[in-house]
Structures are given as C-alpha cells and as structure tokens.
Design goal:
The complex is a heterodimer. By secondary structure, chain A is mainly beta. Chain A is built from no helices and twelve strands. Chain A has strands at about 5, 10-15, 20, 25, 35-40, 45-50, 55-60, 65-70, 75-80, 85-95, 100-105, 110-115. Chain B has strands at about 5, 10-15, 20-25, 30-40, 40-50, 55, 65-70, 75-80, 85-95, 105, 110-115. Classes of the chains: A mainly beta, B mainly beta.
C-alpha cells in the first residue's frame, strides 16, 4: 500500500529563517507526491505536486519541495518563513488502486512561525 | 465561484441519532471523496465516487453510507451515530483525466460531535 510519513508533529521557526517540513514515502512504482496546507477552520489547499521531471518542484506562496528518490523523501521547504505560513501541512501520495485515483495523507505537521 | 460546498458546518448529535452531511461541487468534476480528520491521524478516506452512479469504500467506511445523487452532489450518512464518529469531515472533488490534474479541491468541513 502507498503511504507517507511525517515524522514531526510540530516545527517551530523564526520569521525570516528557512523552514523544512519533512515527508518520507513508501510506494510501489513511481510516486506521485503532493503537499497541502490547512489554515484554521478551513479545508485543505493544494500547494504543489511532484509527478515526474525536475526533483525541485515549485509551488504556491514561495514554497518548494525536493524529491529525493534514494532517500524516499519529499521535504517541503521555504527560504524565508513568514508568520502567515503558520498552518497545518500535509504530505500525500496518490493511490491508484480501486475505481478512482485517491490521495493517502500523512498525519500532518503543524508549522509555527514566530517573530 | 463556490467550488465545494458542505453543509452543515457544525452539528451535535446524540448517540444513536442519524444525519446526512451534504456536499456539492460546481466544477463539473467526476470524482468526489469523503475524508475524516482526527488529531494525530491526518485525513482518512471514508468513501469515494469515481463518477456519477458509482461509490466505493475507502480506508474507514464502517458506520457510514454514501449516495452520489448526481454529478454535483455526494452525501455522507451516519445511520446510528457513535462517539467514535466525532470528527471533522471534509468533502473533496477532482477532475478525472491526466495525471497533471491530480489535485483535490476541498470543502471547508463539517465539525461533528457525537455525545
């Protein structure tokens, strides 16, 4: 079964510093990987995806993610964090079993950016 | 430009009561999904529908039923609510097609408490 793991429940970073939110994956075949963000009392919003091609994927709000096949990782990064980036971040992997493509999500990492 | 609309936003039930969570999307998407979100467990798929007229079980279907009423609407029913079903429920939709379209659009969620 396809799965992703987010080893950190929470990441704390000061505004202006770089941030990394970690994700590792376990898949059979080529992975389709995603990052979503959830702001308080809102649904999840798509940030970026990796399907194929360049290992560095750029997404919304200045975020990017690095796909590393040898380490089976897909870490989310941003060069300079903002307080407004504080939210819950989910890594996800596509699962194509069954009648429709589905996403399997990790447990989420809460990002707290402080002044 | 509503996207995915869920009703109600909040609901409190007593154990054994029944209710239906409503979801509608106006993006002409083929696939629709119901997830539940619990602390420390991320999002887990309850049921999904690849297209109008089809539904399939996800990871945690027990205690739930679904109806894909038409292409726009996908409802989730709790026949006899239990405290273990206290959660935040999200509906999502996706356009069927190329892998490049692998992006879920989420509603804002229904917060359900079962006492």
């Amino acid at each position: 079964a396809q799965s992703v793991a987010q080893p950190e429940d929470q990441v704390n970073v000061a505004e202006g510093n770089p941030l990394t939110v970690k994700c590792t994956y376990s898949v059979s075949g080529n992975p389709y990987l995603f990052w979503y963000v959830q702001y308080p009392n809102r649904g999840l919003q798509f940030l970026l995806k990796y399907i194929t091609g360049d290992n560095l994927v750029k997404g919304s709000y200045g975020f990017e993610a690095e796909f590393n096949k040898s380490q089976t990782s897909f870490h989310l990064k941003k060069p300079s964090a903002l307080v407004s980036d504080s939210a819950l971040y989910f890594c996800a992997v596509r699962d194509i079993t069954g009648t429709a493509s589905k996403l399997t999500f990790g447990t989420g990492t809460r990002l707290q950016v402080t002044l | 430009n509503a996207g995915v609309t869920q009703t109600p936003k909040f609901q409190v039930l007593k154990t054994g009561q029944s209710m239906t969570l409503q979801c509608a999307q106006d993006m002409n998407h083929n696939s629709m999904y119901w997830y539940r979100q619990d602390p420390g467990m991320g999002l887990r798929l309850i049921y999904y529908s690849a297209s109008e007229g089809t539904t399939d079980k996800g990871e945690v279907p027990n205690g739930y039923n679904v109806s894909r009423l038409n292409k726009r609407e996908f409802s989730l029913r709790l026949e006899s609510a239990a405290p273990s079903q206290t959660s935040v429920y999200f509906c999502a939709s996706r356009d069927r097609g190329l892998a490049a379209n692998e992006k879920l659009f989420f509603g804002s969620g229904t917060q359900l408490s079962v006492l």
